[in-house]
Write a structure and sequence with these properties.
2 strands; mainly alpha; two-stranded antiparallel ribbon; 7 helices; single chain
Length: 165
């Protein structure tokens, strides 16, 4: 059964504004944690609004990655996944994820899951929430590691061109 949408536009509009404020403040003070804290209502509302089997699972995995990301940042957990896996990239949900510091991999996976949610959901509100999460995830990546952010943007452009050609 579809979730009520009576106030959804207003709620998501406020969440969008909240996320934008979090991105701006987080980037100005170089704090990925600020961006994530301002993103929390959006992630929770995405979990609430998703209904399909794969989208519900994706939103719960997204919430779990979100929580793990906050823990990794708050407790300054440094774990190099390249050394652990012995490779520089892994495939996640059909997308190649560059590995490195665990704190950067979390928002990368969040961005991928938001794309999955955006493409597999039919609701305009869940798509809107997924877009907020996508852009916020990239802001977190930028706040953590600008060089990786640049590599991801380059990779996305190349992938987009490869799929079009």
């Amino acid at each position: 059964m579809a979730k009520p949408y009576r106030n959804a536009t207003t709620i998501i509009g406020i969440m969008t504004l909240f996320a934008v404020i979090g991105i701006i403040v987080g980037l100005l003070i170089h704090s990925p944690l600020v961006i994530l804290v301002f993103l929390l209502p959006t992630v929770i509302y995405e979990v609430y609004r998703t209904e399909g089997e794969t989208t519900k699972l994706s939103s719960f995995v997204l919430l779990a990655i979100y929580i793990l990301e906050i823990i990794a940042i708050v407790f300054s957990i440094d774990f190099d996944l390249i050394k652990y896996f012995g490779v520089e990239e892994k495939w996640v949900a059909g997308y190649e994820v560059p590995l490195g510091d665990i704190k950067v991999v979390g928002p990368t996976i969040m961005a991928i899951l938001s794309v999955v949610l955006f493409t597999r959901t039919y609701g305009k509100y869940t798509k809107w929430l997924a877009a907020i999460i996508f852009f916020s995830s990239f802001a977190v990546i930028y706040a953590l590691d600008q060089s990786l952010f640049e590599r991801l943007i380059k990779f996305m452009i190349e992938e987009g061109l490869n799929r079009v050609a």
